[in-house]
Design brief:
Elements: H1 12-31, H2 45-51, H3 62-73, H4 95-107, H5 118-134, E1 142-146, H6 149-164, E2 172-177, H7 182-190, E3 198-201, H8 211-223, E4 227-234, H9 246-256, E5 259-264, E6 288-291, H10 293-296, E7 304-308, H11 311-318, H12 350-360, H13 362-384, E8 389-393, E9 399-404, H14 411-427, E10 434-438, E11 441-447, H15 455-473
Helix pairs in contact: 1-3, 4-12, 5-12, 6-7, 6-11, 13-15, 14-15
């Protein structure tokens, strides 16, 4: 490092050495990902206590920091990059995403305003337009890249509120199901829609929003003098992977003048595959759509996206200017990110999507997504055929949920046995599966969405569920 304490620059050779060492450690880590456990030892409270420290006054060398990161701290985590990670909803993190992060942070260009980096912003606009085309949204749709589904849901709710409620904020009512992701409720509160104006709609036997119940709730609110304005449906719920009846909900919203937002953070990416689009019928007619490229497009965490059918509604809700802002002399021809979202300072998320698709091509992405669907169907069929397994939620996309039961078992015993199954399977070190509460009971769930997951891990999952469930029941 430069001897001048006020100079924070590194010499070119030093930067190369540091970069090469970081890349070497990352590549070595990824080269052994198949042998690493999908869940490290996360009983780490004592470790975290020892890690607390004051800010250092003097700098240190990079190598010992990398040693601690890769040898001590990274292994003490859920290994979401593992091919055996069938828990929650995986985010695999393809390597081009890491390269894009290095480039974006290294050159550190400002992409919040088109005029400051027009060619780079155009790359992001291209990537958004690819998403728009794959989701079959119209050309006037606009969108933005976000940190994830939570921010995308928030921006969608704000857009709907501005378009349909205006100053009548307290009269507005919003509708979601009992299985809707909790971020929607949180986003609604942040957008000024308080809990007493949020209606939770019961789901059917397949955990999908009930149309009759939704229609009745909207009618009741109208009769009470309120203003129903927004329905949030799910294209793949977190608990069971359920896809709400999107077409029917969309038709109900169009008839009643409501905004239909689809939370497709988990499932919308399957719409890239033409043969799978019937599973998401009605999605292209939504007023807005949340996607999470860090899920179904396998990008690094922190890559979300929103599409809004009427791009002007998104712009109107977020557009603002100031005397110090540079003017866009080209007008509306070019995408200006800060006019479509809450952030002015922002990182270059779109580069991750652009670079990954440029290096892989869309065909390989479609093949990977179709494989995850096939693997989930295979795993679900084989697990459902096991003795003492009840399949509560067959895969509508690539996620399914089940529980253990046996003659004379009580609900409490079944819940306890299902919980134990998760832990026993995970401890074997080849796959990790997690659970949830749905339908009044505890369920085991398997989500196949890591780009590294292939048939061998599915075979391990089925075999381990079979062996451990038999051992639990036989006690």
């Amino acid at each position: 490092m430069n001897s001048n304490p006020a100079d924070l620059e590194f010499a070119p050779d030093a930067m190369r050495r540091m970069g090469e060492e970081v890349v070497r450690r990352v590549v070595d880590h990824l080269a052994t990902i198949n042998e690493q456990p999908p869940r490290g030892d996360v009983d780490a409270a004592d470790l975290c206590r020892t890690m607390r420290e004051a800010a250092p006054e003097a700098g240190t060398e990079l190598a010992p920091l990398l040693d601690s990161l890769f040898d001590e701290w990274i292994p003490r985590s859920y290994n979401t990059a593992s091919p055996g990670y069938l828990a929650y909803i995986p985010g695999g993190g393809v390597f081009p995403g890491a390269l894009a992060e290095l480039i974006a942070a290294g050159v550190n260009r400002y992409t919040g305003v088109w005029l400051t980096a027009p060619a780079l912003v155009q790359l992001e606009a291209n990537a958004l337009d690819w998403l728009r085309a794959w989701m079959q949204f119209p050309v006037q749709a606009r969108g933005l890249f976000t940190t994830g589904g939570s921010t995308a849901n928030f921006a969608a709710i704000v857009s709907a509120r501005e378009r349909l409620l205006g100053t009548e904020l307290r009269r507005g009512t919003l509708y979601l199901s009992t299985e809707t992701h909790h971020s929607v409720m949180k986003s609604a509160r942040l957008a000024g829609i308080l809990p007493d104006r949020i209606r939770t709609i019961a789901v059917d036997a397949q955990f999908r929003m009930g149309i009759d119940a939704l229609e009745a709730a909207i009618a009741a609110d109208r009769a009470a003098g309120l203003l129903p304005f927004l329905v949030v449906s799910s294209a793949g719920t977190t608990n069971t992977g359920a896809v709400d009846p999107l077409a029917e909900i969309g038709a109900l919203c169009r008839t009643g003048g409501l905004w239909h937002h689809v939370d497709g953070a988990y499932g919308a990416s399957f719409h890239l595959c033409p043969e799978l689009r019937p599973l998401l019928a009605g999605l292209p007619e939504a007023d807005s759509l949340t996607l999470d490229p860090h899920k179904g497009l396998f990008l690094p965490y922190g890559t979300g996206a929103l599409l809004v059918r009427d791009g002007e509604a998104l712009r109107a809700a977020h557009s603002e200017t100031a005397s110090y802002m540079p003017a866009n002399r080209e007008g509306a021809e070019f995408y200006d990110p800060h006019q479509y979202g809450p952030d002015l300072s922002r990182d270059f998320k779109g580069l991750r999507v652009w670079l990954a698709f440029k290096l892989y091509g869309a065909a390989r992405y479609r093949a990977a997504l179709a494989e995850k669907r096939r693997l989930a169907l295979d795993a679900a069929a084989r697990i459902a055929a096991l003795p003492n397994v009840v399949m509560d939620a067959p895969p509508q996309l690539s996620l399914f949920a089940f529980h253990l039961a046996w003659p004379g078992s009580t609900r409490a015993e079944e819940d306890a046995a299902t919980r134990e199954l998760l832990e026993r399977v995970t401890r074997r070190g080849r796959v990790i599966i997690t659970g949830c509460h749905a339908g009044g009971r505890f369920l085991a769930r398997v989500c196949v969405l890591s780009f590294r997951t292939h048939q061998d891990r599915i075979d391990d999952c089925v075999a381990h569920v079979a062996e451990e469930s038999q051992a639990i029941i036989a006690r």
